[in-house]
């Protein structure tokens, strides 16, 4: 973590658990307040566009962002309960055998791009999730997706890293470097925000 990480300041000023919890939640509220709702709306439009043309929506990320990728795929693909007109959401983080085979045989940096080489078609959407925006395997996946005619979206934090500039559309969570917790919290709020909207949109369509 960096010296100017707000979480370090919060800890030094509020050593007791209750005080830390109060300050953390207050800081997270500030972080969420900096989200660009126009960018969020555009992300939803990209997801809906993929659904309209029957395209797949791939999610990828590392660590906590891998869990977010899986959660996103669940909430869009299953949570919307729209089998007649589905959101074809797939998390590239979910097949342990595939991931470890690629990482062991060809290198961790190729973990996502090799899956896209097998699965992705022109017009699909690739959503890359990275707090730092600099994870090599995520960047490789986005570079391949861009070259193959996919629509790329980045969910980023800190200063956005290379990912923010590489994708077609970014939803950025501006924070100090090293604020993994608040960034990943915001990405999960984004998941539930988007999922909640799409669930209700599908219900309205079916009335």
Which descriptors would you attach to this protein?
single chain; 207 residues; alpha/beta; Rossmann fold; five-stranded parallel beta sheet; 5 strands; 56% helix
What does this structure look like?
This protein is an alpha/beta fold and 207 residues long. It has 2 domains: 1-33, no CATH class; 36-205, Rossmann fold. Helices cover 56% and strands 13% of the residues. It has 9 helices and 5 strands. The chain has helices at 6-13, 17-33, 37-52, 64-77, 96-105, 113-119, 136-147, 161-166, 180-205, and strands at 56-61, 88-91, 125-130, 151-156, 169-172. Strand 4, helix 8 (161-166) and strand 5 (169-172) form a beta-alpha-beta unit. The longest helix is centred in the C-terminal third of the chain and has 26 residues, at 180-205. The radius of gyration is 18 Å and the shape is globular. It starts with 5 loop residues before the first helix and ends with a helix.
Question: Into how many domains do the coordinates divide?
Answer: 2
CATH topology (fold) name of the largest domain: Rossmann fold
Count of DSSP helices? 9
CATH architecture classification of the largest domain? 3-Layer(aba) Sandwich
Mean pLDDT: 96
Determine Rg (CA atoms, Å). 18 Å
> How much β-strand is present in the residues?
5-15%
Please, what is the CATH homologous superfamily of the largest domain? Glucose-6-phosphate isomerase like protein, domain 1
Terminus-to-terminus distance: 50 Å
| Fraction of residues in helix | 55-70%
Give the biggest beta sheet: 5 strands, parallel
Rough outline: globular
Low-confidence stretches: none
Query: What is the N-to-C succession of helices and strands?
Result: HHHEHEHHEHEHEH
In the CATH hierarchy, what is the class of the largest domain? Alpha Beta
Give the number of DSSP strands. 5
**Spatial strand sequence of the major β-sheet:** 2-1-3-4-5
Structure class: alpha/beta
């Amino acid at each position: 973590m960096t010296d100017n990480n707000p979480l370090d300041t919060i800890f030094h000023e509020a050593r007791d658990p209750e005080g830390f919890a109060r300050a953390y939640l207050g800081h997270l509220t500030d972080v969420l307040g900096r989200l660009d709702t126009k960018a969020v709306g555009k992300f939803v439009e990209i997801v809906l566009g993929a659904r309209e043309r029957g395209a797949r929506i791939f999610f990828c990320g590392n660590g906590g962002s891998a869990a977010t990728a899986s959660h996103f795929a669940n909430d869009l693909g299953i949570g919307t309960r729209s089998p007649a007109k589905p959101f074809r959401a797939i998390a590239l983080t979910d097949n342990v055998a595939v991931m470890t085979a690629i990482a062991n045989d060809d290198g961790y940096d190729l973990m996502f791009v090799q899956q896209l080489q097998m699965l992705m078609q022109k017009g699909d959407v690739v959503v890359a999730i990275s707090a730092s925006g600099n994870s090599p395997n995520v960047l490789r996946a986005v570079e391949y997706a861009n070259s193959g005619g996919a629509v790329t979206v980045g969910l980023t934090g800190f200063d956005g890293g290379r990912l923010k500039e590489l994708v077609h559309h970014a939803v950025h969570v501006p924070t100090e470097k090293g604020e993994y917790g608040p960034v990943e919290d915001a990405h999960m709020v984004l998941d539930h925000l988007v999922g909640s909207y799409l669930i209700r949109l599908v219900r309205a369509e079916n009335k």
